[in-house]
C-alpha cells in the first residue's frame, strides 16, 4: 500500500521578505549575524550564506551596499551559486 509523504520539518516555509530584512539588518545596521538570526528566528548558517552572497554582489558592483542594491531573492542566489561553481 502506498503511503503519503509528510515532511518532518518546515524549513522551506521561510519568507524571503524576512530573510531580506535580516540580511539588510546585518549589512546596513552592523548587527551581528547571531543577533539577527535570533531576532528573525532564522538559522545562523543560512543567514551567513545569504550575507556573504549579498556582500559579493556589492563587490561585483564595485560600490558600497545600499538598501536598493541588496537583492537576496532565491533566483538571484541560485544564479550566483552557479557562477561560483564554473
UniProtKB/TrEMBL annotation:
InterPro entries given in the database record: Homeodomain-like_sf, HTH_Psq
Subcellular location as annotated = Nucleus
A Gene Ontology MF term for this entry? DNA binding
Q: Which Gene3D superfamilies match?
A: Homeodomain-like
Q: Name one GO cellular component term.
A: nucleus
Q: Could you read off the lineage of the organism from its UniProt record?
A: Eukaryota, Metazoa, Ecdysozoa, Arthropoda, Chelicerata
Quote the protein name from its UniProt record: HTH psq-type domain-containing protein
Q: Which residues form the HTH psq-type domain?
A: 15-52
Broad class of where this protein is predominantly found: nucleus
Amino acid at each position: 500500500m502506498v503511503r503519503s509523504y509528510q515532511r518532518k520539518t518546515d524549513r522551506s516555509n521561510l519568507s524571503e521578505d524576512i530573510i531580506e530584512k535580516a540580511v539588510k539588518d546585518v549589512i546596513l545596521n552592523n548587527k551581528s549575524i547571531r543577533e539577527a538570526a535570533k531576532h528573525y528566528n532564522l538559522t545562523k548558517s543560512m543567514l551567513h550564506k545569504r550575507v556573504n552572497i549579498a556582500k559579493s554582489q556589492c563587490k561585483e558592483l564595485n560600490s558600497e551596499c545600499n538598501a536598493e542594491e541588496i537583492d537576496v531573492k532565491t533566483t538571484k542566489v541560485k544564479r550566483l551559486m552557479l557562477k561560483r561553481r564554473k
